[in-house]
Each structure stands twice: as structure tokens, then as C-alpha cells.
UniProtKB/TrEMBL annotation:
Domain of life: Eukaryota
UniProt keywords, alphabetically: Coiled coil
Name of the molecule in the record: Uncharacterized protein
Phylogenetic lineage: Eukaryota, Metazoa, Chordata, Craniata, Vertebrata
Length: 141
């Protein structure tokens, strides 16, 4: 009678439960390992951030990104002659205010770049050129 009970109860329940739980544990361990590997990859990426080389690479890839636009040349319409440029007083005030804001921002950027030690010759040329252009364009009322 004992063999019959053993044969009836031995349906493989424990073996299949064992396999199912081992599969679950294996999946959880793999998930945890994958998370740790992902976190390690992100940590290495954060550690390897280098703003100077990224900026240099960007400038190499897009050399015209910060180039001044082409010079606008006046083209006379039907024989018009222009001896000087004049502006209405409200617009003149706005232009002067904008000019002062640009000068202030340029001075701030110069200080930041000098502190950073990355103030190159081309940046000096751009700032001097911009400054000279803006000074040369004093608007008449």
C-alpha cells in the first residue's frame, strides 16, 4: 500500500516548483546584474565628461555656427543715394540700449573666458571686431 501512495503523490510537483523558483531567481539575478552594469556605464559616462573637448569637437563639426553673418551691403533702389543713416528717436533709444546691453554682455564674457583660460585669439578678434563695429555705428537722431 505504501508504494501506491508514493506513486500517486509523486507527480513531479516539487521538481517543477523547484525549476520554476530557480528560473525566477535566475531572472531576478540577471536583472540586478543588468541594472548594475547600466549604472556602471552611466557612471563612466559622467566621469568622462569633458566640456573643453566637447566644445572643441562641436566647433570642428560645425565651424560656421558662431561666425558673424555676411555683411549687409546697401543696394540703392532706382538711383537712390544714401549719405547717412538716420533713425527715429524711439528706435534710436532702443538701439542704444541694445548696444549697451551687448557691450555689457561682451565684457562679462571676456572676464569669464579670461578666468577660464580659454580666451583664444579668434575670440579676441571677434570681440574687437564687434566692439569696433558697434562704436562706428553711432546713430543720429
Amino acid at each position: 500500500m505504501r508504494t501506491t501512495e508514493k506513486e500517486c503523490c509523486d507527480l513531479g510537483y516539487h521538481a517543477s516548483l523547484n525549476r520554476a523558483l530557480r528560473t525566477y531567481l535566475s531572472a531576478e539575478y540577471n536583472l540586478e546584474t543588468s541594472r548594475h552594469e547600466g549604472l556602471d556605464i552611466i557612471e563612466n559616462a559622467v566621469d568622462s565628461l569633458d566640456p573643453r573637448s566637447d566644445r572643441q569637437r562641436f566647433m570642428e563639426m560645425f565651424p560656421t555656427a558662431f561666425c558673424p553673418p555676411c555683411k549687409f551691403e546697401f543696394q540703392a533702389h532706382m538711383g537712390d543715394e544714401v549719405c547717412g543713416v538716420s533713425v527715429q528717436p524711439p528706435v534710436n533709444g532702443e538701439l542704444i540700449l541694445r548696444f549697451q546691453q551687448l557691450q555689457s554682455r561682451l565684457a562679462t564674457l571676456k572676464i569669464e573666458n579670461e578666468e577660464d583660460g580659454s580666451y583664444s585669439g579668434s575670440q579676441r578678434e571677434v570681440s574687437v571686431s564687434l566692439s569696433c563695429r558697434m562704436k562706428a555705428k553711432h546713430f543720429t537722431e
